[in-house]
C-alpha cells in the first residue's frame, strides 16, 4: 500500500480537473431539437485557442466556437449518413441527433447493429436504412463500420460516394493503410476525420453530462476548400468538447500504438506480471489484486488524471515516493525497446494486416469473445470480481 490520499485531497483534485466547456450544451441541445433555427443567426468565429503544451504551441478548437444555432445553420442542408452502429455509431449518432442535426443510420438489415439501432429509436424507412440506401440519401457519409468491414465493403460503397458528398472517418486506418485496405476515396469528395479519444460509450455519457470528449480532427482531401471547417463543425456535432488538429497518419499511428501500449495491452501485461510475482511469493489473491489493480484504479490513477504524476506521488508516503522514484527509470529502460518495436510494427503496417485478417473473419465476434473470456478467467480478474463486491456502492 502506497498511502491513503485523503478524500479531501481527492475532491480538490477532481474539482481542479473539472472541464471548462459549457456545461449546458446537451441540455441546450435537447431544447434546440424542438426550437426553430434562427435565420438571422450570423456565422461568426469567436476565435480559436493557441495553447502552450510543455513548450510547444498548438491550436485547440473549442465547442464554444460553435453555438448550437450556428451548428444547425451550418449543417442545415446536410444529411449525416452514419454507416455502422457499433460503439462510435451509437455515441456519435445519438449526440448528433440530440444536437438537432439530420441523421440517418445505415447498417446490415436485421443484424446486431440493426437491432441496436431500433432499440435507440431509429425508425426503419425514416432514419434507419440498409447501408447502400443510407449512403445514397446522405451528404456526409460517416464511415463507422469496423475498420476491417470498411475494407471489405469498400468496393460496394465507393461508387455511391458521389461528387459533392463528404466522406468522414473516425480513424485514419482505412485511407492511410490503403495498400492493405484498398480504400482509396474518389478524387472529387472532401475526406475528413473526427476521431473521439475514447470509447463511443464515453462519447455519449460525457455529452449527456454536458461535457464533451476530446477529439482529433484532420483533412485527407479538401475539394471544397471547406473540409477543415466541416470537420470542426462535425466534431462538435457528434459531441466533442475540444478538437486537436492532426493528420490522418499521425492519428492512426498514435491510436494503434496507444491502445496496444499503456491504454490496453501494456496495462494488462503490467498488471498481470506484478500480480504473478506477488502470487509466486506467497501473497494471497486478494492481497495481490488490491496491491496491483484496486489501489491503482480506485485511489492513485484518478489522482494522476486530476493533477499529474507528481501530485499522485506527493499524495503518497515518503517511503513510497523514494522507492517509486528509484524504480521508475528502471521500468522506463526495460519498456523502451518494447515500445520501439510496437511503434515500428504499427508504422510498417504489421498491426493493420493482423487486424484486417482477424477482424475480417466471419467469426470475428466469437473469436474475440473467446480470447476475452480467457482474460476474464485469469485468476487476477476472478479475484477482482470478489474485491469489487466489497465496495460500498456494490449492490448484491
Ligand atoms: N470504439 C472506439 O473506442 C473507437 C474510438 C475512436 C474511433 N473508433 C473508430 O470508429 C470506427 C467504428 O468503430 P466502432 O468501435 O464503433 O465499431 P466496431 O465495433 O468496430 O464496428 C461495428 C460495426 O461494423 C459493422 N460490420 C462489421 N462487419 C461488417 C461487414 N462485413 N459488413 C457490414 N457491416 C459490418 C457492424 O455491423 P453488424 O452489427 O451488422 O455486424 C457494426 O455496425 C472505426 O474506424 C474505429 O477505429 C473507434
Automatic annotation (TrEMBL):
<dbReference type="InterPro" id="IPR013328">
    <property type="entry name" value="6PGD_dom2"/>
</dbReference>
<dbReference type="GO" id="GO:0046872">
    <property type="term" value="F:metal ion binding"/>
</dbReference>
<comment type="similarity">
    <text>Belongs to the ketol-acid reductoisomerase family.</text>
</comment>
<keyword id="KW-0521">NADP</keyword>
<feature type="binding site">
    <location>
        <position position="259"/>
    </location>
    <ligand>
        <name>Mg(2+) 1</name>
    </ligand>
</feature>
<dbReference type="InterPro" id="IPR000506">
    <property type="entry name" value="KARI_C"/>
</dbReference>
<dbReference type="GO" id="GO:0005759">
    <property type="term" value="C:mitochondrial matrix"/>
</dbReference>
<dbReference type="GO" id="GO:0009097">
    <property type="term" value="P:isoleucine biosynthetic process"/>
</dbReference>
<protein>
    <recommendedName>
        <fullName>Ketol-acid reductoisomerase, mitochondrial</fullName>
        <ecNumber>1.1.1.86</ecNumber>
    </recommendedName>
</protein>
<comment type="pathway">
    <text>Amino-acid biosynthesis; L-valine biosynthesis; L-valine from pyruvate: step 2/4.</text>
</comment>
<feature type="domain" description="KARI C-terminal knotted">
    <location>
        <begin position="247"/>
        <end position="394"/>
    </location>
</feature>
<keyword id="KW-0100">Branched-chain amino acid biosynthesis</keyword>
<keyword id="KW-0809">Transit peptide</keyword>
<dbReference type="GO" id="GO:0009099">
    <property type="term" value="P:L-valine biosynthetic process"/>
</dbReference>
<dbReference type="InterPro" id="IPR016207">
    <property type="entry name" value="KetolA_reductoisomerase_fun"/>
</dbReference>
<dbReference type="Pfam" id="PF07991">
    <property type="entry name" value="KARI_N"/>
</dbReference>
<dbReference type="InterPro" id="IPR013023">
    <property type="entry name" value="KARI"/>
</dbReference>
<feature type="binding site">
    <location>
        <position position="255"/>
    </location>
    <ligand>
        <name>Mg(2+) 2</name>
    </ligand>
</feature>
<keyword id="KW-0496">Mitochondrion</keyword>
<feature type="binding site">
    <location>
        <position position="295"/>
    </location>
    <ligand>
        <name>Mg(2+) 2</name>
    </ligand>
</feature>
<keyword id="KW-0460">Magnesium</keyword>
<feature type="binding site">
    <location>
        <position position="255"/>
    </location>
    <ligand>
        <name>Mg(2+) 1</name>
    </ligand>
</feature>
<keyword id="KW-0028">Amino-acid biosynthesis</keyword>
<dbReference type="InterPro" id="IPR036291">
    <property type="entry name" value="NAD(P)-bd_dom_sf"/>
</dbReference>
<dbReference type="GO" id="GO:0004455">
    <property type="term" value="F:ketol-acid reductoisomerase activity"/>
</dbReference>
<dbReference type="InterPro" id="IPR008927">
    <property type="entry name" value="6-PGluconate_DH-like_C_sf"/>
</dbReference>
<feature type="binding site">
    <location>
        <position position="317"/>
    </location>
    <ligand>
        <name>substrate</name>
    </ligand>
</feature>
<keyword id="KW-0560">Oxidoreductase</keyword>
<dbReference type="Pfam" id="PF01450">
    <property type="entry name" value="KARI_C"/>
</dbReference>
<feature type="domain" description="KARI N-terminal Rossmann">
    <location>
        <begin position="56"/>
        <end position="246"/>
    </location>
</feature>
<comment type="pathway">
    <text>Amino-acid biosynthesis; L-isoleucine biosynthesis; L-isoleucine from 2-oxobutanoate: step 2/4.</text>
</comment>
<dbReference type="InterPro" id="IPR013116">
    <property type="entry name" value="KARI_N"/>
</dbReference>
<feature type="binding site">
    <location>
        <position position="291"/>
    </location>
    <ligand>
        <name>Mg(2+) 2</name>
    </ligand>
</feature>
<keyword id="KW-0479">Metal-binding</keyword>
Amino acid at each position: 500500500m502506497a498511502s491513503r490520499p485523503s478524500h479531501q485531497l481527492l475532491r480538490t483534485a477532481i474539482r481542479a480537473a473539472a472541464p471548462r466547456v459549457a456545461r449546458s450544451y446537451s441540455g441546450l441541445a435537447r431544447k434546440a431539437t424542438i426550437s426553430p433555427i434562427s435565420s438571422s443567426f450570423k456565422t461568426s468565429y469567436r476565435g480559436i485557442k493557441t495553447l502552450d503544451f510543455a513548450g510547444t504551441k498548438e491550436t485547440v478548437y473549442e465547442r464554444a466556437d460553435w453555438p448550437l444555432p450556428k451548428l444547425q445553420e451550418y449543417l442545415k442542408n446536410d444529411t449525416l449518413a452514419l454507416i455502422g452502429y457499433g460503439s462510435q455509431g451509437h455515441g456519435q449518432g445519438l449526440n448528433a441527433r440530440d444536437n438537432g442535426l439530420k441523421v440517418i443510420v445505415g447498417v446490415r438489415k436485421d443484424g446486431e447493429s440493426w437491432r441496436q439501432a431500433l432499440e435507440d429509436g431509429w425508425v426503419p424507412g425514416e432514419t434507419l436504412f440498409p447501408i447502400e440506401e443510407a449512403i445514397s440519401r446522405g451528404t456526409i457519409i460517416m464511415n463507422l463500420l469496423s475498420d476491417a468491414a470498411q475494407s471489405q465493403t469498400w468496393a460496394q460503397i465507393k461508387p455511391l460516394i458521389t461528387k459533392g458528398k463528404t466522406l468522414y472517418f473516425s480513424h485514419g486506418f482505412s485511407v492511410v493503410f490503403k495498400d492493405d485496405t484498398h480504400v482509396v476515396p474518389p478524387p472529387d469528395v472532401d475526406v475528413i476525420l473526427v476521431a473521439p479519444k475514447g470509447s463511443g460509450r464515453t462519447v455519449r455519457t460525457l455529452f449527456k453530462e454536458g461535457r464533451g470528449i476530446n477529439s482529433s480532427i484532420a483533412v485527407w482531401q479538401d475539394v471544397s476548400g471547406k473540409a477543415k471547417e466541416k470537420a470542426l463543425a462535425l466534431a462538435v456535432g457528434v459531441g466533442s468538447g475540444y478538437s486537436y488538429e492532426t493528420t490522418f497518419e499521425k492519428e492512426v499511428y498514435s491510436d494503434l500504438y496507444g491502445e496496444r501500449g499503456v491504454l490496453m495491452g501494456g496495462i494488462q501485461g503490467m498488471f498481470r506480471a506484478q500480480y504473478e510475482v506477488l502470487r509466486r511469493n506467497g501473497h494471497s489473491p486478494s492481497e495481490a489484486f488490491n496491491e496491483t489493480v484496486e489501489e491503482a484504479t480506485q485511489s492513485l490513477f484518478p489522482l494522476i488524471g486530476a493533477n499529474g504524476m507528481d501530485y499522485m506521488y506527493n499524495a503518497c508516503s515518503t517511503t513510497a515516493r523514494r522507492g517509486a522514484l528509484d524504480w521508475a527509470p528502471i521500468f522506463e529502460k526495460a519498456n523502451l525497446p518494447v515500445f520501439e518495436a510496437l511503434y515500428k510494427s504499427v508504422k510498417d503496417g504489421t498491426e493493420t494486416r493482423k487486424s484486417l485478417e482477424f477482424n475480417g473473419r466471419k467469426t470475428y465476434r466469437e473469436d474475440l469473445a473467446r480470447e476475452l473470456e480467457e482474460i476474464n478467467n485469469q485468476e487476477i480478474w476472478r479475484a477482482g470480481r470478489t474485491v469489487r463486491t466489497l465496495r460500498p456502492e456494490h449492490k448484491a
